[in-house]
Amino acid sequence: MFHFPGVDFLEIDSLLSDDEKLVRRTVRDFVDREVMPHIEEWNRAGGFPRHLVAPMAEMGFLGANLQGYGCACMSNVQNGLIMQELERGDSSLRSFVSVQGSLVMYPIHAYGSDEQKKRWLPALQQGKAIGCFGLTEPDFGSNPGGMRTRAVKDGGGFILSGEKAWITSGSIADVALIWAQTDDGIRGFLVEKGAPGFTAHDIKGKWSLRTSITSILSLQEVRVTAASMLPGVRGLKGPLSCLTQARYGIGWGAAGAAMACYNEALEYAKTRTQFDGKPVASHQLVQERLVDMITEITKAQLLALHVGRLKDRGRADFAHVSMLKRNNVKIALDVARAARDILGANGVSDEYPIFRHMCNLESVFTYEGTHNIHTLIIGERITGIQAYR
N or C: which end of the chain has fewer CB within 10 A? Predict the structure, then answer.
């Protein structure tokens, strides 16, 4: 069985508690045992390994940093380490867990009614129910405030009409959190699978996140009760606060993907011989690339850990998380491309994980706020001037 040795040039492990190391080791062993022997096969087939949902739930991965309702009550750093190790396996696994915990369970936990919490949170935590997050639309990604999906009050409930795109877990979800325009601003609605007028179909032909289910949701006059609306939030604060939770996990996850690519390139460079039988790792240009890679990974690890510590103290805000997501995804993509170059032609073969990670990271670079959007978020914070429009 493959055993990932870890990447820790600057003794960052010395900054982790025993409990944090235990969480990381548990997830690392799970990924090495259950994911690595099969991930390339799943990626070729383009299928999500749904059989892993139950064991991930049993180990507390789903909603790990939430309190009560059967959740593991882990710290944000522990939750970040989960995301790091899952994305080291594949971005799709981290995406599933991130959507379930940060984009579905978190808003129900933070903004839901007692009835909604009691009904959905235990089932979602146990993996007995799967959720999805319906915000992005075909014509509105970076500008969620322009969404066209509407919820019109009708008697004691609402009628929802609209379309959502690029929705992780959409076609297998038992409940969809749909964000829609109302006369009272943007509100979130829990729409159950099988509701008349609510359909989902998968997006095919993806070259990225192939082991993730990605769907289009269609709502054609879907009637829901007033009790399906999240009572605790209105406006863009609702979906954006969820995205902040998910972006935090992405920052850790991207570091995991970078670690996987770096480790593969390092081992390959030490064993691949070229020019008089010398390993390519003996060449100055290759060593420079490896040094650049591990330096950026180390900086990403420190950034993730510090934002996690701030988050555990209630001090991290959305701009801090934007810096984490923006930096770590960019360096992960750079590391993947450099690793691919070190492997030469072998870098495009799925005998090695690098091209899979590189393709996945192209999507991660874009979703949950594009690189440019996070640039503008941070720019507004440091200048006080909004440059979105």
Answer: C
What CA–CA distance (Å, rounded) separates 370 from 363? 9
C-alpha 374 chain-centroid distance: 16
- List the beta bridge partners of residue 182: 185
pLDDT band for 80, please (50, 70, 90 cuts). very high
* Domain termination site, one of 92, 108, 125: 125
Please choose, from the candidates 376, 144, 106, 109, the residue with its C-alpha nearest in 3D space to the C-alpha of residue 241: 106
Half-sphere exposure of residue 219: CA atoms within 13 angstroms, side-chain side: 31
Q: Within 10 A of 187 (CB to CB), how many other CB atoms are there?
A: 21
The reply to whether 4 falls in a domain is no
| 3-class SS of residue 182 | strand
Tokens of 275: 């020019």
Residue 368 annotated as catalytic: yes
Do residues 280 and 251 both lie within one domain? yes
Record the tokens describing residue 70, joined without a space.
């059967």
Please tell me the distance from the alpha carbon of residue 177 to that of residue 190, in angstroms, as a whole number. 5
One domain for residues 186 and 317: no
Which tens digits make up the pLDDT trace of 207-231?
A: 999 999 999 999 999 999 999 999 9
Whole-angstrom distance, CA of residue 155 vs CA of residue 225: 9
* Band of residue 163 on the pLDDT scale cut at 50, 70, 90: very high
Residues facing 186 on adjacent strands: 181
Amino acid in position 150: R
User: The domain that contains 70 carries what CATH number?
Assistant: 1.10.540.10
Could you read off the pLDDT of 96-106 as tens digits, one per residue? 999 999 999 99
Q: Which of 87, 296, 368, 380 is catalytic?
A: 368
Read off the tokens for 333.
């993509």
Task: Give the whole-angstrom CA distance, residue 171 versus residue 130.
Answer: 10
In angstroms, the CA 1 to CA 350 distance is 18
Does pTM top 0.85 for this prediction? Answer: yes
